[in-house]
Amino acid sequence: MGAAVFFGLAGIAFGPALALVLLTVAAEPLRVIVLVAGAFFWLVSLLLASLVWFISVHLSDREDAKLQYGLLIFGAAVSVLLQEAFRFAYFKLLKKADEGLALISEDGRSPISLRQMAYVSGLSFGIISGVFSVINILVDSIGPGVVGIHGDSPYYFITSAFLTMALVLLHTFWGVIFFDACEKRRYWCLGLVVATHLLTSGLTFLNPWYEASLVPIFLITLCMGLWAFVTAGGSFHNILKCLSCKQEDDSRVMMYSALQVPLED
Amino acid sequence: MTELSAHLPQFQHGQLTENFPDNHLSNTNDNSERRRHDNSERRRNDNPESETNGQPQSNTQQVVEQDEEEDEELTLKYGAKHVIMLFVPVTLCMVVVVATIKSVSFYTRKDGQLIYTPFTEETETVGQRALNSILNAAIMISVIIVMTILLVVLYKYRCYKVIHGWLIISSLLLLFFFSFIYLGEVFKTYNVAMDYITVALMIWNFGVVGMICIHWKGPLRLQQAYLIMISALMALVFIKYLPEWTAWLILAVISVYDLVAVLCPKGPLRMLVETAQERNETLFPALIYSSTMIWLVNMAEEDPEAQRKASKNSTYHKQAPANQTQNEDAEADDGGFSQEWQQQRDNRIGPIESTPESRAAVQALPSNSQTSEDPEERGVKLGLGDFIFYSVLVGKASATASGDWNTTLACFVAILIGLCLTLLLLAIFKKALPALPISITFGLVFYFATDNLVQPFMDQLAFHQFYI
């Protein structure tokens, strides 16, 4: 416990997210706005889900622990479904905004593509979801205490951090896949995204049996990552081309900067 | 409703205006003349404003329509940039306030109440507490209304000296006294040993540079930093001295008041703005946060003294957006210069906006003084009162919420989204709009919802280490 733990956990949980934001989002105003608006949509979905859970808890018997546990699982499932519903709503909004931006732009193309918006919206859902899940835990880790002193797992903090990281990445990938599926009207893809989200959330119910929850979740993250990469148009060939492209571009730049007529002409 | 770029002086609450130097502004000598001038310059997109002035306005109607579309496109294209230009200072102010609340316990300790809120909230029954807080809020709002009306009356009867004295006294109070208290409390929190001489030196420097930057001239970033700091200080005072229910009620009522005062035809703030427009003056730059400074073009081939003054001004205001061209537009908005300075400038150079002599003079400039109409120079203005009330909301959320950081973050996102929507409306309606209502409404809804609904849910989930 203490600052070291805090910074370590924060780095694990939000390192990838921070890097992605700094490198890809922070420089472009439109993307920042998409990021903040995505966070807003996720928050509204969480609010509604909490309302449902709250009402169900108040209508039920508070003393019955099993019932409360069941209601919590029910609340989590409702929350997942609402998140995906709001992702769809956000897709609709962004599509309309995209068309609007394209209409009023000089060359008929909007300054941000739907794919970029898919990525940024996924990232925004991931970040706000991760933050809401883990920030209070992170803040508690600065103070004094012993983890799991009452018999719970002593790995609570570090597994939370890793789960958060997985969640952030998962939301990013789901965003890309979801928007692409909505564009191309591949409803089975949509269903698969919702199903994997439910599966991931369900796997966390197996905590603290971390082998059964963490390992599959990371496997799912990897698969989703590959799927999102392919959906966004990537391929092994692209990677190679990207790595080798760099040198070609450089040499071309050199030629033009020497203020000579290119020899090809 | 005429378009305006003037901004509101009211200390308690401000207003959001957009600073378009041409087509969408009309704060010059003569509205119609300006509009003609604007239309003529808009006819050639990339031509310098100066060069279109004297030339015959021979371009035709279809060009005008095309220009209006381009205006709109430029508006919305650079709208995103303006939103970020306001996100950053609002976020910084909120971060300062939340950081202070979390670390310095002075601002969460109950040490009495202001005289504006005389009724206590430590009562036996809930009903009594509710009644007291309603009375407190009513008193506070009436004080604000009275002060606004007083300001409007003073402005209408041209008692500028009184207004300036009032503004100077309040910024003196903030920059010296409140920051001294703040510094003292920060030192106490971190147990830093400090002597009075050092503190006096620090506060003196801080205060004097602040007064100069805010009321006179200074680098743009420094002026913005000072405005953010005094907004944060004021917000901290409110957070400390307003009891809980009173604070929430005041926030709600003041956003309603802001809406009414800015949009209703007889609203005091609207009357203030219209009066300023009629007189072709700008209002009280010391109370408005502006995201860009405007420059003076190197106007005076004919007047070497004014040329000197123009170049002197450009050295002061180097903090301009990155792609500034060499000679800037003589944009009508003053972006933070005080009344006296502007009158001085007007006396020396002549009103820049639309006199034929100035246009001829500028036209006579050599052709390399091409000022492309750089839309990114346009800035947005937000009143300091908005900063203060946003920060009060987020600060109170972080001070008193049981959900703690979740609630704070939810309110933060809500306020940013409200600001974004307000700016969108501003781009659509192109007139001064109140910046408080949407953000404060979202903020309040999210505060109460997150604190009472989301926090227990997330707490239970975190307890079992479930993720959603």
Q: What does this 3D model show about the protein?
A:
The complex is a heterodimer of chains A (265) and B (468). Helix content of chain A is 80%, strand content 0%. By secondary structure, chain A is an all-alpha fold. Chain A has one domain (1-258). In chain A, helix 1 (3-25) packs antiparallel against helix 4, helix 1 (3-25) packs parallel to helix 5 (156-184) and helix 2 (29-58) packs across helix 4. The longest helix of chain A is centred in the N-terminal third of the chain and has 40 residues, at 65-104. Chain A starts with a helix and ends in an 8-residue tail after the last helix. Chain B is mainly α and 468 residues long. Mean pLDDT of chain B is 75; it is low at 1-15, 17-59, 295-337, 350-354 and 367-373. In chain B, 64% of the residues lie in helices and 3% in strands. Chain B has a three-stranded antiparallel beta sheet. Chain B has 15 helices and three strands. Chain B has helices at residues 31-42, 49-53, 61-103, 126-156, 160-190, 196-215, 220-241, 244-263, 268-279, 304-316, 339-349, 356-363, 384-400, 405-429, 436-464; strands at residues 16-19, 288-290, 379-383. Chain B has a domain at 80-294 and 379-464. The chains are: A mainly alpha (265), B mainly alpha (468). Chain A binds chain B through residues 29-30, 32-33, 36-37, 39-40, 43, 46-47, 49-51, 53-54, 69, 72-73, 75-76, 79-80, 83, 101, 104-106, 111, 128-129, 131-133, 135-137, 139, 156, 159-160, 163-164, 167, 200-201, 204-205, 207-208, and chain B through 69, 72-73, 76-77, 80-81, 83-84, 87, 404-406, 409-410, 413-414, 416-417, 420, 446, 449-450, 452-454, 456-462, 464-468.
Task: Walk me through the topology.
The complex is a heterodimer of chains A (265) and B (468).
Chain A (H helix, E strand, L loop, with lengths): L2 H23 L3 H30 L6 H40 L9 H29 L13 H29 L2 H18 L5 H22 L4 H22 L8
Chain B lengths: L15 E4 L11 H12 L6 H5 L7 H43 L22 H31 L3 H31 L5 H20 L4 H22 L2 H20 L4 H12 L8 E3 L13 H13 L22 H11 L6 H8 L15 E5 H17 L4 H25 L6 H29 L4
